[in-house]
Amino acid sequence: MTSILFIGDFGSGNKGQYLVSKLLENLIKKYNCKFILGLGDNIYPNGVKSTNDKQFIEKFELPYANLSNNIKFYNVLGNHDYNLKVSPRNEIKYTKISNKWIMPNNFYCFKKRINNVPVEFIAIDTNLTKMKNRKTQEQWLLNTIYESRCRWIIVFGHHPWKSYSTNKEDDYELDELYTKINNIGKVDLILSGHEHNKQHIYIPDKPNMVICGVGSLVDEEIKFYNNEELKFASKTLGCGKIDFFKNSMNIFLYNINEEKEHSFIINKI
Known about the structure:
globular, Purple Acid Phosphatase, chain A, domain 2, seven-stranded mixed β-sheet, alpha/beta
């Protein structure tokens, strides 16, 4: 069986990133994980100045040197990646330089057949007020979802649609975009980072949502609202894993001790 992993907010070059990298290494070996979805904030604190910026080495290549070059990171842009005006363009260009880094555009999609099940992964740029091609993205995004014939559809971006933490930021334009995505009725899972915690949120008539912004940092001061839609929350470093089957998708959240903190199943007839 083959699995995939996902992490967000990882590009710090700190001890936490190395600890999560070791977790990734162990899970890859144990569960035959083939690639990683990166959920943004790839290079803290402000992104990069050029494709030769040493931060690519210090905050990406070295922390993940323990992982095989066959393990690719499919990345998206976070808000910190936009702090320098030139950073988004250089992060996209870095795709042609690194053996592990993949981000051909600020939004893109790819399809994989995992355990003989077709899955479509749709990477979006959630920095709507900063990006120049937001209308182009919206049209492309909705058309891509409409036209997909894959068994499972996963949308991943940096900012979450919903959150039950005290750090939640209201973004009405992003809420409108996610609502349009939801109204199509085909997306099975939404993955995001941004908040330095883990959350699993399920709201009837919406896709399951997972926040996993703990690839190198955690917010110890964060508090969570008591809400029945919040199925799980934690403030530990770690990552997520997904197993794909024809009639179910299994999602797991891990801490750096390789302990399963939470898991749930999405069923499809």
